Amino acid sequence: MNLSPPSPLLSVQHLSKTYQNGTGILTVLNDISFSLATGATCAIVGPSGSGKTTLLGLCAGLDRPTSGSVTLHGHALNFLSEDELAAVRNTSVGFVFQSFQLIPTLTALENVMVPVELRGDKQARALAVDLLHRVGLADRLHHYPIQLSGGEQQRVALARAFINQPRILFADEPTGNLDAETSEKVMRLLFDLNTGAGTALVLVTHDGELAQQTQRIIRLRGGMIVEDRDLPPVLGGKETGTRRTGEPENQQKDPRLPHSPILPFPDSGNPTRKTDG
Question: What domains, with CATH codes, occur in the chain?
Fold first, then answer.
């Protein structure tokens, strides 16, 4: 029997993004192609100005490309209206911004509830409370962002990104504004979410240690992919080789945990405040 390989969760084909400036056309991304399977993890690395954040936004449907295509969970994003894009993001995408992007006039609990409240989910409050407990913020439910440390704000942002049980999480420099100890906590949470919920994870990072914990590293320079390599299915392990741009992915089953609607955050119990977040 000739079985076709499963369709990738994310497929990016010949993606380019240009902007018109005062002196001509600025090319930010040039002919980017790659795909990502369900539950896979990938780090996008490269120097500042190489197009990493722009690529992340295009993949998440936050912006539109100049040319090329993005297909996410079977949806060809290029052909969707703004309302249709918003619906795909609300059901399939989680996004964590470097600057957290919490709403300052809402409490931690209210910030986490926003995505599911927008679709009228009656369980919004219970889901948000559970997630905040799981990220260790059981005693910070009614605190406003200004009352939280950087690490606590980032954990609120992670809970918000996962409340709709997305198929894929995009994180832009998730540890970029955090100290070393808090960064380690956030890193653990990211991979707990990935392994427990079967959610694919795409990180933009300058943190080499964080990048090495993913299954794959894509390196950009000057808006182009200059390296695309697989890492072994062991955190912090030795790399296994380099994939040529556009070459099909290894379709081996991810050895991590199967999909589960329960996110295996460590039980927060009755946490006490830590000044480092």
Answer: 28-242 (3.40.50.300)
pLDDT, one tens digit per residue, over 221-259 is: 999 999 999 998 654 433 434 443 444 344 333 333 333
Which of 146, 166, 54 minimizes the C-alpha distance to 103? 146
Phi, then psi, of 114 in degrees rounded to 5: -50, -50
Report pTM: 0.79
Assigned token pair, 53 = 């954040």
- pLDDT tens track for 52-62: 999 999 999 99
Alpha-carbon distance 242 to 234, whole Å? 17
Calculate the alpha carbon distances from 54 to 51, 243, 273 in Å. 5, 22, 36
Q: What share of the chain is helix, strand, coil (3-state, %, to 5)?
A: 30, 25, 45
Instruction: Say which amino acid occupies 227.
Output: E
DSSP one-letter string for 33-101: EEEE-TT-EEEEE-STTSSHHHHHHHHTTSS--SEEEEEETTEEGGG--HHHHHHHHHHHEEEE-TT--
Q: Length of the chain in residues, anyone? A: 277
Give the H/E segment covering residue 157: helix 150-162
Residue 65 burial by Cβ neighbours in a 10 Å radius (0-12, 13-18, 19+): buried
Give the tokens for residue 36.
């990502």
